[in-house]
Amino acid sequence: MAHSATAPEGLYIHVPFCFHKCHYCDFYSIVENDADRHKRFAKRMLGEVDALLALAAAPALSPVSIFIGGGTPTFLDCEAWHLLAEGLNSRLDRSRLTEFTIEANPETVEPELLTLLLEVGVTRVSMGAQSFQPALLKALERWHEPASVGRAVRIAREAGIGQVNLDLIFAIPGQDMAALEADLDAALALEPDHISYYGLTFEPNTALTRRMELGQVQPVDEDLAAVMYERILDRLAEAGFEHYEISNWARPGRTCRHNLIYWRNDDWLGIGPGAASHVAGQRWKNAPHLGLYLASQHLPPMREIEAPDPARALGERLMMGLRLREGVARAWLDQALGADDPRRGVLEEAIMAGLIEQTKTHLRLTRRGLLLADAILTRLV
Q1: Secondary structure letter of residue 122 according to DSSP
Q2: What's the CATH number of domain 310-381, 2.60.470, 3.90.220, 1.10.10, 2.160.20?
């Protein structure tokens, strides 16, 4: 653990507060709008940072990338943000910092907050747009007006935030190709630097999944979802975006550095309730419980602590690497996979089926392989 406060490439900060729980969301979040509790949370989070620094005998955290997610980080009370901002400024060594991202709900983006975030060093805002169609937002129980996305993007740019990402979802119950085209038109009209476009998944223990099980929601047909994904591939390519990960596109030079840390299986440190960490092969997760978090002293209670497992770590690196459009290096594969490793057979089978292709230096998913990625990648862990 002494390694953890100084070496990780990434720092993830989890703010669990929301004004409404979206029905598809399986991240730890709570509906909480108590300003005093928000301030207690900010102070406790700085206490967690101090405990990590003391454990590592380090003067400051020194990440390459910071990502503040949630929940809805921009829902945090402004006074709490001031506390957190001042505290982070005194605990960060920014000599390696190249990217600082915050997730935002469009309805909570205001000039005062964006100015404060810019002073903290935020360089990138990820807007949770999901869709620009009121009926589809309602299907997700997402509470914002479509017009607020453009307003929030404008405020971010006027504040001086350098990069804007739009977070979108396709294959929403009730969505057809015309609605998808309308969402693509609206998203591209805002000229974002980056687009994250995820197919809707029905996660366990979410309200949306319960509604599906009760027959109240009908998932989009798999064949239609595949056609939607291919249309997204074509439209974003035509618009000049580079497809660098299964669900992520960026203008040249605008890839999300923080998410690349996850996909390349590098080290990151997570702060806050429910935040996960991965350092030197060790994984752990803070207990997803705000009350326990606020009541704790020094380090918060942790769960899901895992010791290194070389075989599993190799499979995860292979799986995550194939999510990237660059794929995985053949030289690394030849060295990492033993001659009798069953994953060699999985890869060879996928190559023969036209789902994976070999370049001079890498193995990567083909366009058809992208459509069947989940089925391929789960066999490699």
Answers
A1: -
A2: 1.10.10
The residues, any chain, with a CB within 8 Å of residue 159's CB and separated by 6 or more, are: 111, 114, 115, 117, 118
What is the rounded CA–CA span in Å between residue 68 and residue 105? Answer: 13
Question: 234 CB contacts (<8 Å, ≥6 apart)?
Answer: none
List, for residues 17-27, the tens digit of each pLDDT value: 887 666 566 66
Please calculate the CA angle 138-139-142 and round it to the nearest 5 degrees: 50
CB-CB contact of 66 with 13 (8 Å): yes
Give the helix/strand (H/E) hosting 198. Answer: strand 194-199
Kindly report the three-state secondary structure assignment for every residue of 218-255.
CCCCHHHHHHHHHHHHHHHHHCCCEEEECCEEECCCCC
Q: Could you write out the DSSP letters of every residue in 47-81?
A: HHHHHHHHHHT-SSB--SEEEEEES-GGGS-HHHH
- Residue in the structure block whose two tokens are 């083909």: 366
Confidence class of residue 3 from pLDDT cuts 50, 70 and 90? very low
Q: Looking at domain 10-263, does it have CATH number 3.80.30.20? A: yes
Residues 174, 204 contacting (CB under 8 angstroms) = no
**Given strand 124-130, what is the order of strands in its sheet?**
242-245, 248-250, 194-199, 163-170, 124-130, 99-104, 65-70, 10-15, 268-271, 276-279, 282-286, 302-306
Q: Strands 65-70 and 10-15, how do they pair?
A: parallel
Q: What is the CA radius of gyration of the chain?
A: 21
End-to-end CA distance of the chain: 26
Q: pTM for this one?
A: 0.92
